[in-house]
Every structure is written in structure tokens, then in C-alpha cells.
């Protein structure tokens, strides 16, 4: 009798891969929840964008950090998004 084949999509390799994917997805979701709990908004995986609510010159804005930057050096209006990113005013960038 020939060996029994696993149902389509259920080979050992596929099940192992699914388990690995589920584990990584769980970790990512945990990190995203942690960012949210401390008041951050994760915006983009490819660019590694994170926004932080704040105030500048009396109005609500988003401080904007991108992966690879040493510190928060940009901001944008609430509705502007990454395209509206501006450098921090000089007085703030020196601190």
C-alpha cells in the first residue's frame, strides 16, 4: 500500500513554516501593542516609521522618527503624514 499523503497545505514542512510565521506574527503584534501602550503610532514597516503625539507652538502635532535616525528630528501636522515631515525648529534640535 502506498504511503498516505497529507491533505493539500498540510505537509510537515508547511505546518512547521506556519508555526514559525504564527510565532513571528505574535511577536510583532506584541511589539505593536507595546508601542501603542506608551502612546506611539507605528506607521510603516518598510521605513520603520513611528509617530508620537505632542505639541509644538501651541498646536497638536506628531513627532516623527524613522528607523536609522539617532533621535527624533522631525515632526508633521496630524493629517500631513510622512509627506509633510519637517525638521524640528533649530531651538529644539540642539537639545
In words, what does this structure look like?
With 95 residues, the chain is α+β, with helices and mostly antiparallel strands. It is 32% helix and 28% strand. The protein contains two helices and five strands; from the N terminus they run αβββββα. It has a five-stranded antiparallel sheet. A hairpin with a 7-residue loop joins strand 3 and strand 4. The model has no long low-confidence stretch (mean pLDDT 86).
How does the SSE layout of this entry go?
Elements: H1 12-37, E1 40-44, E2 49-56, E3 59-66, E4 74-77, E5 86-87, H2 90-93
Antiparallel strand pairs: 1-2, 2-3, 3-4, 4-5
Strand order within the widest sheet?
Answer: 1-2-3-4-5
Q: Helical proportion?
A: 25-40%
H/I helix tally = 2
Alpha-carbon distance between the two ends: 76 Å
**Broad structural category:** alpha+beta
Calculate the mean pLDDT score and round it. Answer: 86
Number of DSSP E strands: 5
Largest sheet: 5 strands, antiparallel
The low-confidence runs, each spanning 5 or more residues with pLDDT under 50, are: none
Amino acid at each position: 500500500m502506498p504511503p498516505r499523503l497529507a491533505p493539500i497545505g498540510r505537509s510537515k514542512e508547511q505546518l512547521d513554516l506556519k508555526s514559525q510565521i504564527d510565532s513571528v506574527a505574535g511577536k510583532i503584534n506584541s511589539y505593536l501593542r507595546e508601542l501603542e501602550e506608551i502612546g506611539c503610532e507605528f506607521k510603516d514597516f518598510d521605513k520603520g516609521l513611528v509617530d508620537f503625539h505632542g505639541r509644538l507652538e501651541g498646536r497638536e502635532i506628531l513627532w516623527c522618527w524613522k528607523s536609522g535616525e539617532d533621535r527624533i528630528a522631525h515632526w508633521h501636522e496630524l493629517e500631513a503624514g510622512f509627506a509633510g515631515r519637517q525638521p524640528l525648529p533649530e531651538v529644539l534640535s540642539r537639545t
